[in-house]
Amino acid sequence: MKKLLFFVFTIFFVSQSIADEPLKWFSFNEGLNKAKAEHKILLVDFYTDWCGWCKKMDAATYGNEEVRKLLNDKFVVAKLNPEEQGSVNFNKQTVSQGAFAQAVQVTGFPTTGFFKNDSVFIGKVSGYFEPKQFIELLHRVLKAKEPAKEQ
Question: How much is the pTM?
Answer without folding.
Answer: 0.83
